[in-house]
Amino acid sequence: MLRPNRDFDDATFDRSAAAFDNPDHVAIVIHNYRWRLGLAEGESKYDDLEKRLAKGPDITVPTITLEGDANGAPHPDAGSYAKKFSSRYEHRTIKGGVGHNLPQEAPQAFAEAIVDVAES
Predict the structure, then answer these.
(1) pLDDT confidence of residue 15
(2) Which of 16, 63, 68, 96 has the most crowded CB, counting CB atoms within 10 A?
């Protein structure tokens, strides 16, 4: 399995680590996984929105999806959802040991995708 390039400086690590200094962090993370697996209820005020999103409506705006070549998180192949985009669509795999956090691990590629989709 490919491993993301996690060669961050101490300041970046310290800023990221501060997110764990929250007494609710573990409960929130565990609940999120349980919810995504259908083992826990979500926030009821979003039920209508969740039902609409579950239908998988077409995405009608120009879109570029990005995937790091070392993303270890489970995800579907880009080809399996490409037909959901009814406007210009492109998928980019960002190479070089890029993991799950593209804005931090591949900021240039991330910014290029934003500019490219905005110009389309």
Answers:
(1) 84
(2) 68
- Supply 70's token pair: 């070392």
What is the pLDDT averaged over residues 61-73?
A: 92
What is the Cα–Cα distance from 80 to 78, expressed in whole angstroms?
Answer: 5
| Single pTM value for the model | 0.69
Provide the 8-state DSSP code for 78.
G
Reference 67, options 32, 110, 7, 116; nearest CA is 110
* Residue ranges with strand state E in 1-120: 63-68, 89-94
> What are the C-alpha distances in Å from 90 to residues 3, 34, 84?
25, 31, 12
Task: Calculate what percentage of the chain has a pLDDT beyond 70.
Answer: 94
Determine contact, residues 67/92, Cβ cutoff 8 Å.
Answer: yes
Buried b (16+ CB within 10 A) or exposed e, 49-68: eeeeeeeeeeeeeebbbbbb
Q: What is the pLDDT of residue 2?
A: 43
Tokens of 6: 């996690």
